[in-house]
Amino acid sequence: MQTTDIVEANRPAPIALYARFKALLDGVSWNYLVIPMRIAGFSVFMRSGLVKLDDWSSTLALFADEYKVPVLPAALSAYMATTIELGASTLMLLGLATRFAALSVIGMIATIQIFVYPMAWPDHIQWLAFLIPILVWGPGRFALDTLVGRFFKVP
Prior knowledge:
- By secondary structure, the protein is mainly alpha-helical.
- The protein has 8 helices and no strands.
- The longest helix has 25 residues, at 30-54.
- The relative contact order is 0.12.
- The model has no long low-confidence stretch (mean pLDDT 93).
């Protein structure tokens, strides 16, 4: 009998069950964890972009009257935000230029947080919780970035 078997036999049942459960979770690969994060990014920002497109005149008015991003004209801000929401969310879902897409959305969130809705940080923290890991660790194996990287032999 090995030492680990003796330790395992002497553990109370709930602790042994927890240890097995922990070992199972420790074995989950980033390649699988990132998939729902990419889907979440797509879901949140695609819906927001589609709402903007649905009534473009209201979107322009909202950017002119309420959002008022400094330095940028309201129409340019509206086009930029809508493009980032629709484009970056699609790229994240596909796993194509994923880190660039995540970074662009993070930049948009930072702009909103600093200049438009400083009290919206609870939402922004939630969004950053799935965007920052994508930025840092990438889209995982099941992404177009992986295929492109293999084709161009990117390490």
